[in-house]
Design goal:
alpha/beta, 6-stranded mixed sheet, 19% strand, 3-stranded antiparallel sheet
Amino acid sequence: MKRPGAKTATYWRTKEEVEAEYGEWYKEPRYDPESDAYDAAAYEALVKEIVDKAGLTQPEVGVSWRDLTARVNVASGPVRDTVGTQALGVWKGLYQTAVRSVRWGKAARLPEAERHHTILSSVSGYARPGEMVLVLAPPGGGASTLLNLLALRRAGLSSTAGQVLYNGEEIPCADRVAVNHVLRFVGQKDEHFAQLSVRHTLAYAAEFKLPDFYPYAPVLRRHRVLLVARTLGIVNTLDTPVGDAILRGVSGGEKKRVTVGEMAVAGIAGSVVAMDNWSKGLDSATTLDIVRAIRGFTRRSQSVVISSMQQPPEEVFNEFDKVRRGSFWQSGGVQGVSLWTVGGALRRARLCGCPVAVPIAPRRRANHHSVLALVCIVLAFCGLLCCAGSAASPLCCPV
């Protein structure tokens, strides 16, 4: 697989030759994204021509995975934070260490077959350049583990098996240069510098992908930030801080757009993008807007996007080219697949008029004791309110 080389004198010499040949093309109104006469097709064609001239064209990348299997130790789960652990303060770390020791002691007494839990078992699939793949799975179904393996992230897994091939070749996890050039990962959490504005966040990401030896690097960075922000609908928030729980900034939906924009502004051409349940907490309209923007990025750059989601709307579902749900794998477009939902759970899928059964995670039985306790608390609270409002009424507070 061809990969970009290091910054050498050859790149700098090529940069000077290309810039001398094309001159100040960005000053023409049709090539200026801020101008009313901006022509998107002409701009993309010229930028592609400049990149090809400099020999920096990214090759198209396809990905395939065969017989992926992942297992985890039953005692390796994280220690959940509770009100009690937060009250421990500085002793919290000691408490977590003690809990982990107890877990490992219990696991050591288990039979060898019960010490590990299989999350993925012989999972296979592929994605061609320019395709979007949707992975559907219930919580705990292994969707995040699949995306982590495709992104060569194996932390927390006790053992893995199978192959992940990019253009028919394996990439060693230790080859960080190849990993950073080929793979992109968007997690569930939006991790940003809260003090930076949206513009600075996107520009910071663009500087990593477009180094100084790139022809017209400062101009293309500025244009990418504006075009990505315009596509994602965050132009009005470019000068607003990203913010966090302490510093007031953009909203939750806008912050997710910033996360996707940070990935897109760095360039996804020749990349495989893994998006792990990124729509969590977003409304349907925001999710649809972001998916359509990602669809546009994918088609223009001929990259691969593999996304996991839970109960996506039909409009979002139709934007993907392939869908994987348990052992059900549909390729060649999802327009022929109709989803039936009962109580929010995926029940059946129909492909070209032929019903196909889709495995469903077993429903959990309701905890009747918890429900009864909740009802008693609500009735007691209503009784207190009634007594406070009508103390003299014999119906509410009989004497």
